[in-house]
Specification:
There is one protein chain. By secondary structure, the protein is α/β, with parallel strands linked by helices. It has 2 domains: 2-86 and 247-276, ATPase, nucleotide binding domain (Nucleotidyltransferase, domain 5, 2-Layer Sandwich), CATH 3.30.420; 98-240, 2-Layer Sandwich (Nucleotidyltransferase, domain 5). 43% of the residues lie in helices and 21% in strands. It has a 5-stranded mixed sheet with strand order 3-2-1-4-5. A 5-stranded mixed sheet has the order 8-7-6-9-10. Strand 2 (13-21) and strand 3 form a beta hairpin. Its cofactor is [4Fe-4S] cluster. This is 2-hydroxyglutaryl-CoA dehydratase.
């Protein structure tokens, strides 16, 4: 049985996935940890926890591919791939009919057009503005005074979502405070915030020619309010799997399996064990 790993070092969280190939590919383990200030340590921690969960030694992993903004800081990695390619490949693996990926992470959002084999046909990224990212939603939660995990369910309770004129982080805080001062319900405010983000994301996604099936990836996929708002503006259901947050790491692990061969695996395992002090 061949085992490969994908490590996705994001701006806020780091994800690791172990993938086994024994006549069929399956996920052995997945782990998530906060990235923090030390990117290298976060990658090692997520990877070690994955191996611990799978009941294997780190030296049993034949190849590691890193992705995400911190991919070049993964000292034990063998190769790096862009998160665009990894999210496309991971989405295609877990949801084979995927033709469009909407990825919403902590610091950026992306729309990716995907081919039948998981290849990237086109993509567009919003990495210059917090709108449509976890950071934007975290700011909204802070202004209202609730936890980030509470805003999605609360947004679903909106009866009359307010109109948010801007999705600029600086100005939307003033809008939220103004609505609160005028007695608007937090649920209606958050409903408006989620719809505003969804409409902006739709404009982004239209630049890559949205085609079904649509798969959502990234940490924001765990926000039920955001999923609902996106489906409302898209006019279509999206694939949202329990592994949506790990999609980049899954894709990286798939690339790692493809890059493996026995001779390289043996040589790298020795170097890796030496590097980690095993």
């Amino acid at each position: 049985m061949r085992i490969a790993a994908g490590v996705d070092v994001g701006s806020t969280q780091t994800k690791a996935v172990l993938l086994a190939d024994n006549g069929g590919r399956k996920v052995l383990a997945r782990k998530l940890t906060d990235t923090g200030a030390n990117v290298q340590k976060a990658a090692e921690r997520a990877f070690d926890l994955c191996c611990e969960e799978a009941g294997i030694k780190t030296a049993d992993v034949g190849f590691v591919v890193g992705t995400g903004y911190g991919r070049y800081k993964i000292s034990f990695g063998n190769a790096q791939m862009t998160e665009i390619s990894c999210h496309a490949r991971g989405a295609s693996f877990l949801c084979p009919g995927t033709r469009t990926v909407i990825d919403m992470g902590g610091q950026d959002s992306k729309a990716i057009s995907v081919g039948p084999s998981g290849e990237v046909l086109d993509f567009v990224m919003n990495d210059k503005c917090a709108a449509g990212t976890g950071r934007f939603l975290a700011n909204a939660a802070e202004v209202i005074g609730i936890g980030l995990d509470e805003i999605g369910p609360l947004a679903l309770e909106a009866k009359r979502p307010v109109k948010i004129a801007t999705v600029c982080t600086v100005f939307v805080e003033a809008d939220i405070l103004s609505y609160l001062a005028n007695g608007k319900k937090p649920a209606d405010i958050l409903g408006g915030v989620h719809l505003a983000i969804a409409k902006r994301t739709l404009s982004l996604a239209r630049r890559v020619n949205i085609e079904p099936e649509i798969t959502m990836t990234g940490g924001v996929a765990r926000n039920a309010g955001m999923v609902h708002a996106l489906e409302e503006v898209l006019g279509a259901k999206m694939n949202v799997t329990p592994d949506a947050h790990f999609m980049g790491a899954v894709g990286a692990a798939l690339f790692a399996l493809e890059k493996m061969d026995d001779s390289f695996e043996m040589g790298w395992t020795k170097d890796y064990a030496s590097h980690r002090g095993n």
